[in-house]
């Protein structure tokens, strides 16, 4: 996902697809996270992620349309999301040149002296109080409105609704 949208969604914990609020959508103040997992392992306690949360209908759309997720994913209801740091490009404090690294982005925790020299591309958080969930089961229980659709809860989703049609947040 686009770096600016990622940072905005992660800072305010907005749905990464429709940009709507994810707060209060699920019982117990929990939020739905979907991460790529080729091995299909559950989301671990304190797992780091650069993926912002999703509202349930957008999570289902993502599973349908995202080939990466189709190859393997894991979903969890998360009680607490804590800020961890950033993923970005680290520069040398004296030469201001980019420090070469094996990975395209380096993970830098908040509080690190390197943070001042890092051009952040993504905000990273850690996930706590994680309960594995099946997105298809979760979404089958209700006709969820998308986060962006305040009223109309319980209304069936329009058949033609697609990923990306509601990127109106600015
Ligand atoms: Zn959404």
From TrEMBL:
<protein>
    <submittedName>
        <fullName>Uncharacterized protein</fullName>
    </submittedName>
</protein>
<feature type="region of interest" description="Disordered">
    <location>
        <begin position="144"/>
        <end position="170"/>
    </location>
</feature>
């Amino acid at each position: 996902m686009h770096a600016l949208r990622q940072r905005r969604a992660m800072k305010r914990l907005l749905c990464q697809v429709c940009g709507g609020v994810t707060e209060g959508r699920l019982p117990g103040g929990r939020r739905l996270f979907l991460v790529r997992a080729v091995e299909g392992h559950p989301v671990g306690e304190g797992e780091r992620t650069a993926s912002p949360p999703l509202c349930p209908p957008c999570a289902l759309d993502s599973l349908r349309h995202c080939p990466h997720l189709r190859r393997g994913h894991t979903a969890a209801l998360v009680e607490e999301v804590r800020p961890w740091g950033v993923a970005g490009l680290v520069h040398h404090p004296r030469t201001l040149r980019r420090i070469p690294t094996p990975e395209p982005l380096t993970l830098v925790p908040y509080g690190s002296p390197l943070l001042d020299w890092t051009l952040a591309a993504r905000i990273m958080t850690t996930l706590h109080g994680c309960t594995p969930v099946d997105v298809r089961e979760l979404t089958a229980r209700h006709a969820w409105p998308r986060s962006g659709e305040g009223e109309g809860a319980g209304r069936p989703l329009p058949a033609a609704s697609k990923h990306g049609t509601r990127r109106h947040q600015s």
